[in-house]
Structure formats: structure tokens, C-alpha cells
Design a protein that fits this description.
Blueprint lengths: L4 H7 L11 H4 L16 E2 L6 E5 L22 E2 L1 E3 L15 E6 L19 E2 L6 E3 L2 E6 L4 E7 L3 E7 L5 E7 L11 E8 L5 E7 L6 E9 L5 E6 L21 E4 L2 E9 L4 E8 L3 H10 L4 H16 L2 E4 L2 H13 L5 E2 L6 E3 L5 E3 L6 E2 L1 E2 H4 L3 H8 L2 H17 L8 E3 L2 E2 L8 H10 L7 H12 L7 H7 L10 H21 L3 H11 L6 E2 L4 E2 L28 H4 L7 H7 L3 H12 L17 E2 L2 E2 L11 H4 L3 H15 L15 H11 L1 E2 L7 E4 L6 E5 L5 E7 L7 E7 L2 E2 L4 E3 H5 L2 E8 L22
Parallel strand pairs: 34-38
Antiparallel strand pairs: 1-2, 2-4, 3-6, 5-11, 7-8, 8-9, 9-10, 10-18, 11-17, 12-13, 12-16, 13-14, 14-18, 15-17, 19-33, 20-23, 21-22, 24-25, 25-26, 27-28, 29-30, 31-32, 32-37, 33-34, 35-36, 35-38
Pfam family, one: Glyco_hydro_92N
EC number: 3.2.1.-
Keywords: Glycosidase, Hydrolase, Signal
Length: about 775
């Protein structure tokens, strides 16, 4: 198989010598801001509550909001303002709370205006050449207002700094109407209040992806507010983008309504204007307390956040060609943004019951895109973050379950609110992986109880039928084929935890459920298929068909037929053995899609045949050649994927990053191994893409990967050693990494067809016990 052009360029022997240095300095937050990456370029602290970033357009309705899911799209010509909440790479849009925009001059427009008509509103044109982005900091020059805008963020605060042109009248527009999921009626209610000391507080209650979401804020400025106007613009008529009459006087100290916008006047300033904003999901008092919890001006907050980022990013040092270092460093940065802080400085948090609760001894986190991130994002964080961070994630999930109106763990949660997006109960493998890795600070018995409660909740996603039939019937529940195999994997992780904790009966019950994937596997076609309650497979059957609401979730039979991570050996046997499995894997990657049209499916991106790297169900598939005894084929496919799906440019992600999962895949793959089966304690070996990388582990040890003779020509693994001893198996264990040491790959031009091919040298499978 020929190497892709990009990988060849990155690893060519004629390339400049490999470089190393600060991982922080190698990060480029602009990667993923174009195409379908859905990342944002603005400021955030590691796992911070505030994501302060420019929004280029919030006017898109539901039908086309997908492309603006992160608020910023690299190809847009204007910036509408800077809002304080964003998802990093989500496949859905929401947030964009509390938008602030500086305005110069005597006239202050209260409407954003038309991007195609300069001067029609408060939005401004900008030039990418004036942008600067690094972890925790973003700056740009707003061409129309001639304002140099800078933003940074702390843990629960965002800080703006605006340099107005000399002699210009300085104003801010504070718009509570805008949203990244914009449709009529989203803003249920909002409020603004000017306090005697100049602090402004307010709130928004919205219905969107998460229903009835409440968010509060507190804002202070470095210069006194000399004039203001609060307007409820509901029903107001804009004339050429400028404000028409609102409802009543606009200079009142308080106002509430469904379409609030504020004008804040500062006169002519002799120094830059700093604006500090804190958020809370609890109440305005919580927002004020959060504001007070992080003292300091713009430079102080920026310096503190830079120190946090340097410490977090120093957990991984990289040596390799500059373009690849840039991609991998940025990917690592993207894995450290979510899950996000969602609890206040005093420990209070709002839960899925929409009530306020108190966390004790940990910080409550939310923004859990679990269908995506259980695969590689969370396993990566167990290696690069302190155990207390993983414990906080687990405790947040378990405490959410305890107050859930339905008694189940989060599915896709943000700011404590449930969206019910995607399938499975994938908080379970996240919790299980942490327990099985002996992460301290977790009440394992309480966690297991929450896991079982979710797995046994019959009304959710056809689980009642799953427990009755051993599969989800398609005539009773949509996306049934996908749900069956995903439930079976989650059940296996419950069995593993139950066994570890000594609950033998529970372990047996869920081990049996872990085999339910067999009930949806059709030996006649070799695909996982949807079955009717009668037991018959649904017909007609087309393994390439992708239709939302049908047999599969954001995919088809080609992708989902490989999702048996807990027992790949049994799947290989069901497919007819090693040779048949390799032929089917090749058929998937080499499939001719020329006659297929997937334009109706948003998340189907990054196709290599029927392999879809832009969406998660395919992410482990290239590693499955290892399970079939041909690891050199995994090495070939990984080169194909890395070369075609990642590049160090704004459109450098083939699909949306999904809160770090696309990025975590690249980080692991560049290191030479990947967690195909979280909960197994193993990482499957692929091939390295970096010359050298070192993990600074939370326990104080260091684990180094070294790739000798790596080049475009030497793309195959010749041999592997761990701490100087030959490694014959195609896996490395979590305990091996935590012990510290060195993993050395010796690369060569031709495949090694003997290394790690014996059944005993292959990765874990439930049925083989390997």
C-alpha cells in the first residue's frame, strides 16, 4: 500500500532534522476552526468553566447551525462578538452565552448587522493576519472599530482587554439574545442588573439542546461606566441595523425580558478597558463569588492560565518533524479542554434535576460527550492528569446519577443538564476504566451501583427488550443494531468491576449480557444486523446504507460490525477466521464509494472506503489487524489514516473533534499504541509517527517512546523492546506504562510477518482470556 503524500512529506528522509521543545509553543489553536473540526480559537484554562472565544456568526437557524457549532468559522469575514461558553469540536451547536463586543464612536448599534454590509451593526470585519492564538489567549484587531481585542480565561472567569483608538468614544454592547443554536423562542427569560459599585449581573434561561438551562454571570470593568442602556428588544424594529425604540426607558438599573441587550458607555479612555466576567449555573451570588475567587487583572489571569497550560502540556514532550509536532501538540491541547468545570468556587452545582447541590471534596465537572470520549479521550487523561482529576469526573457522573429524575448516569451532559444525545450508557466504561486502574478517591461500590442502575433502566433506549430478548428489536426501537453491540460492551465493563469488587453473581449476569452482540451478528452475511422481535433479521439489507433513525447510529453495517472490543477473537472466529477477517477489513478500507451519496449525513466525514474516521465507531478498526495476526497491516492503515485525516491547518481535522476524541486518537497513534478496549488495561500496538515522546506520569515516573530509523521508507515495525527486553506481544499494559521506562520501536522498510502473530501474543479478548 503506498504511503499517503502527507505522511511521506512528514517523514521523508530529506526532511529537516526532527525538532523538539515546548509543547505549549507547538500548539496552534487555529487547527480545526475550519472545515468540520468545530474547534474554537479563543481562551480557556485546562478544563475551565469559561471558554471565551470570538463568534463569527450566530444568526444561523437549526437547519444550518451545524457548521457554526463552535461559534467561529475560519472562512467567515466578520466577528460578531466574544461569548463565554463554547464546545470544543462538538457535533451539535449550543452555548455562546453572554456576548460582549466593543464599539467606537457616538452611535452604538444594538443589532449585529449584516456581515455583507459593513457598518450595518456592531459586528466588525477582521483580518487573519492580525490574529494571535495560544492556549489561554486570543487576540485580533477589529477593523471597523479599530479596536485591538484580547481575551484570556481563568478557571471560572473570562477577561477581555480592549485598546480603543486614541480619542475614540468607548462602548460595549452586551447581548443576551445571541446563541449558537439560534431559533425563535430559545431565550425563555433573561435579566440585567447594574449594582451601585458598577458590577453588572444577569441571567439567561434557555431551551435548546439542553432544556431549561440556567446561566448567571457577573461583570466588572476597569473603568467606570458613565452611561448605560438596558433594552428589551422583543418586538423592536431595527432600521439599517441600528436600534429602534425598545420597551420603556433604557437607563434603568434593572430590566428583564426575552430579548435583552445592554449599551455600556465609558467615554474617552486613556488606558485599555478590561472587562472581567464570571459564570455560574447556580445563581448571581455564585457568579459574584466566582468573580472574587480569581483576583488580578488581565495580565495576572493570563499568566496564571499560561502556567496551568504549560504544566498540563508538559506531561507530553514530543520530538519529530515540525508539522507533525504541531498537529500532535494541538491534539493534546484539545484533549485538555473538556470535561469542563461546572461547579462554583463554593462547591455548589446544578444537576439534571435542575436543583442546586453541594459537592464536597471535589470540583463538579460537566460537558461529557460520552459516546465519543470513552474510547480514547478518558483513557488518555488517566495517563496525563493527576488521579484527582479522573476521580472528579467519576464523582461528577455518579453524583449526577444520584439526583437524576430517571436514576441513570449522564448520556451527553453539559452544565449539569442532560441532552439525551447518542446511544449507550457510556459513562459506565469511563467509570469502570478508572476503577480497574485503581484510581484513588472513588467510592467503587457506589459507582458500581450507579452503573448497574443505568444498565437495568428498562425505559431507556430499548433496554427492557434488550434484557428480554438479548438484543434490541428494530421494530420496537430505532438504531437497534448499534444499541445491541454498544450495550454489550458496556455490560462487559460492569462485569469486570463486579468481579474486581467480589460480586460474583453480578459479574456472571453482566458477562452473559456482554455476549449479546452474537444475537445481532448474521453469519450468512458477516455483518451485525438489526433483528425483529420475531427473531428474523430485517430485510432488505444494504450494508452501505446510512439513514438516521434506522438500524445504525451515525453509521452502517460496515462500521458497526467491528464493534465487539471486549471479544474481537470471538468476532474473528464468527467471521471465518484470521484470513477471512483480514479480507473483510481490506474490503472495508478499499470499498469504492463512487456511487454512494452520504450528503444527508452530517457526521459522515473522512471516508477511506467504508472506514469513516470523522466519526467514532470506526476509530479502533485499523488496529484489528493485530487481532487477526497481521500487525503490519495495522501499520499500513495507520499511515493511510494519519496522512489523510490530520494536517496542521484550520481545516486540519476531517471531522468534528467531539470534545477531544479525534485528537486523543492522534495522540495515542503518534505514540504507537491505542486503547481499543478501555477496561482491559491494555493498549494495542500500532506504529509510531514521532521520533521520540515522553509521558510525565502523575506518579512522578516517566515513560518514553523511541522510534529508531523512522522515515517515509521505514514505515514498518521490525522489533519492539520494553526496558531493553524484546516485546513479542502486540500490546503494552497500563501497568507497564505506570512503572515508567522506555518502549523502543526499530523501524524497517519491509513488514515483519513474524512479530506478534501467534494467538498468545495478540490483544485481550473475553472468550480467549488473552
Amino acid at each position: 500500500m503506498p504511503m499517503s503524500a502527507l505522511v511521506a512529506a512528514l517523514l521523508a528522509a530529506a526532511a529537516p532534522a526532527s525538532g523538539s521543545g515546548s509543547t505549549f509553543l507547538a500548539v496552534d489553536p487555529m487547527i480545526g476552526t475550519g472545515g468540520e473540526g468545530h474547534t474554537f480559537p479563543g481562551a480557556v484554562a485546562p478544563f475551565g468553566m469559561v471558554q471565551l472565544s470570538p463568534d463569527t456568526d450566530t444568526s444561523h437557524q437549526i437547519r444550518d447551525a451545524y457548521k457554526w457549532a463552535a461559534g467561529y468559522r475560519y472562512t467567515d469575514p466578520t466577528i460578531q462578538g466574544f461569548s463565554h461558553t463554547h464546545f470544543s469540536g462538538a457535533g451539535h451547536s449550543d452555548l455562546g452565552d453572554v456576548l460582549v463586543m466593543p464599539v467606537s464612536g457616538s452611535i452604538v448599534p444594538l443589532e449585529a448587522g449584516d456581515a455583507s454590509r459593513p457598518g450595518s451593526g456592531y459586528r466588525s470585519r477582521f483580518d487573519h493576519r492580525t490574529e494571535r492564538a495560544e492556549p489561554g489567549y486570543y487576540a485580533v484587531t477589529l477593523a471597523d472599530s479599530k479596536v485591538r481585542a484580547e481575551v484570556t480565561a481563568g478557571l471560572r472567569v473570562g477577561v477581555h482587554r480592549y485598546r480603543f483608538a486614541p480619542g475614540a468614544e468607548a462602548h460595549l454592547v452586551l447581548d443576551l439574545r445571541t446563541s449558537l443554536y439560534d431559533y425563535p423562542g430559545k431565550i425563555l427569560w433573561s435579566s440585567l442588573r447594574l449594582h451601585p459599585d458598577g458590577t453588572i449581573t444577569g441571567s439567561r434561561q434557555t431551551r435548546g439542546w439542553a432544556p431549561d438551562r440556567q446561566l448567571f454571570f457577573a461583570l466588572r470593568t476597569s473603568a467606570p461606566i458613565v452611561g448605560h442602556g438596558f433594552e428589551d428588544r422583543e418586538g423592536a424594529i431595527a432600521y439599517k441595523g441600528f436600534q429602534g425604540p425598545g420597551r420603556g426607558r433604557d437607563d434603568v438599573a434593572e430590566r428583564s425580558g426575552r430579548a435583552l441587550v445592554a449599551r455600556l458607555d465609558f467615554g474617552r479612555l486613556a488606558a485599555p478597558l478590561e472587562v472581567k466576567v464570571a459564570l455560574s449555573s447556580v445563581d448571581e451570588a455564585g457568579a459574584i463569588a466566582n468573580l472574587d475567587s480569581e483576583p488580578g487583572d488581565f495580565d495576572a489571569i493570563r499568566a496564571a492560565t499560561r502556567a496551568r497550560w504549560e504544566a498540563a502540556l508538559d506531561a507530553l514532550t514530543l520530538t519529530g518533524p515540525a508539522p507533525l509536532r504541531r498537529s500532535v501538540a494541538t491534539a493534546f491541547y484539545h484533549t485538555l479542554i473538556a470535561p469542563s468545570l461546572a461547579g462554583d468556587a463554593d462547591g455548589r452545582w446544578r444537576g439534571p434535576d435542575n436543583q442546586v447541590h453541594q459537592a464536597r471534596g471535589y470540583d463538579f465537572h460537566s460537558t461529557f460527550s460520552l459516546w465519543d470520549t470513552f474510547r480514547a479521550e478518558h483513557p488518555l487523561l488517566t495517563l496525563v492528569q493527576p488521579p484527582a482529576r479522573t476521580a472528579a469526573f467519576v464523582r461528577s457522573l455518579v453524583d449526577s446519577q444520584a439526583v437524576s429524575p430517571f436514576g441513570i448516569l449522564p448520556i451527553w451532559q453539559f452544565q449539569g443538564r442532560e441532552t439525551w444525545t447518542m446511544i449507550g450508557y457510556h459513562a459506565v466504561p469511563v467509570i469502570a476504566d478508572a476503577i480497574l486502574k485503581d484510581m484513588p478517591g472513588i467510592d467503587a461500590e457506589a459507582a458500581l451501583k450507579a452503573m448497574v442502575a443505568s444498565a437495568d433502566y428498562a425505559p431507556y433506549g430499548g433496554l427492557g427488550d434488550y434484557m428480554r430478548y438479548g438484543y434490541v428489536p428494530i421494530d420496537r426501537e430505532p438504531e437497534a443494531a448499534s444499541k445491541t453491540v454498544e450495550y454489550a460492551y458496556d455490560d462487559w465493563t460492569i462485569a469486570r468491576v463486579a468481579a474486581k469488587l467480589g460480586h460474583a453473581d453480578l459479574a456472571r449476569r453482566f458477562t452473559a449480557r456482554a455476549g449479546n452482540w452474537r444475537n445481532s451478528f448474521d453469519p450468512a452475511t458477516g455483518f451485525v444486523r438489526a433483528r425483529l422481535a420475531s427473531g428474523a433479521f430485517r430485510t432488505p439489507f444494504d450494508p452501505t446504507a446510512i439513514n438516521y433513525g434506522s438500524d445504525y447510529t451515525e453509521g452502517n453495517a460496515w462500521q458497526y460490525s467491528w464493534f465487539v472490543p471486549q471479544d474481537q477473537a470471538a468476532l474473528i472466529a464468527a467471521m471465518g477466521g484470521d484470513a477471512a477477517t483480514v479480507r473483510k477489513l481490506d474490503a472495508m478500507f478499499d470499498y469504492d464509494n463512487s456511487k454512494l451519496d452520504y450528503s444527508h449525513a452530517e457526521d459522515i466525514a473522512g471516508l477511506i472506503g467504508q472506514y469513516i474516521h470523522g466519526n467514532e465507531p470506526s476509530h479502533h478498526v485499523a488496529y484489528l489487524y493485530d487481532y487477526a495476526g497481521q500487525p503490519w497491516r495495522t501499520q499500513e492503515r495507520l499511515a493511510q489514516i494519519v496522512g489523510s485525516q490530520y494536517k496542521p491547518t484550520p481545516d486540519g481535522l476531517a471531522g468534528n473533534d467531539d470534545l477531544g476524541q479525534m485528537s486523543a486518537w492522534l495522540v495515542f497513534t503518534a505514540l504507537g499504541f491505542y486503547p481499543v478496549t478501555p477496561g482491559s488495561g491494555e493498549y494495542v500496538i500500532g506504529r509510531p509517527f514521532l521520533d521520540r515522546a515522553t509521558l510525565a506520569l502523575p506518579n512522578g515516573r516517566r515513560f518514553t517512546m523511541e522510534a529508531r530509523h523512522l522515515s517515509a521508507a521505514n514505515r514498518y515495525v521490525g522489533s519492539v523492546t520494553l526496558n531493553g527486553r524484546p516485546l513479542a506481544r502486540s500490546v503494552i499494559r497500563h501497568a507497564d506504562i505506570l512503572a515508567g521506562g522506555t518502549l523502543v520501536f526499530t523501524m524497517q522498510k519491509t513488514p515483519n510477518r513474524k512479530w506478534a502473530t501467534a494467538p498468545g501474543d495478540r490483544p485481550y479478548s473475553m472468550s480467549s482470556g488473552g
